[in-house]
């Protein structure tokens, strides 16, 4: 699944229990079409108790972010802080005397580069 969302983008949640909240993308799973967003969809994991090398106890309850589907988030436009769709613009750049095409992500709402 082709996702236009990358690691480090600021996104807003459009659906689910954390609807309306914003956060930074921690990880993108392109194969399953899911993203992990900082501070969103926090779940409690039970980990088995063990010992570290120094002898301290590890394990117990850990609260961490779980992945959500990429269709439930939208990139926040930096100009007006509202969710927007993304399109790509192809620019030709001249390098070493050759024309080379590069893609730039553009917010549909404002038309500015992301």
From TrEMBL:
What Gene Ontology molecular-function terms does this entry list? rRNA binding; structural constituent of ribosome
Keyword list, A-Z: Ribonucleoprotein, Ribosomal protein, RNA-binding, rRNA-binding
Q: Where is this region: Disordered?
A: 92-114
The family assignment reads:
Belongs to the universal ribosomal protein uL24 family.
HAMAP family hit by this protein: Ribosomal_uL24_B
Q: Describe the protein's quaternary organization and the partners it interacts with.
A: Part of the 50S ribosomal subunit.
Q: What is this protein called?
A: Large ribosomal subunit protein uL24
Question: What is the primary gene name for this protein?
Answer: rplX
């Amino acid at each position: 699944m082709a996702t236009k969302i990358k690691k480090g983008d600021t996104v807003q949640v459009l659906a689910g229990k954390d609807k309306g909240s914003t956060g930074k993308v921690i990880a993108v799973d392109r194969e399953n079409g899911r993203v992990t967003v900082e501070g969103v969809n926090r779940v409690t994991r039970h980990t088995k108790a063990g010992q570290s090398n120094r002898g301290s106890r590890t394990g117990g309850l850990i609260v961490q972010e779980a992945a959500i589907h990429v269709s439930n988030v939208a990139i926040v436009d930096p100009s007006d802080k509202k969710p927007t769709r993304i399109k790509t613009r192809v620019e030709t750049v001249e390098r070493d005397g050759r024309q080379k095409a590069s893609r730039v992500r553009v917010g549909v709402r404002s038309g500015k580069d992301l």
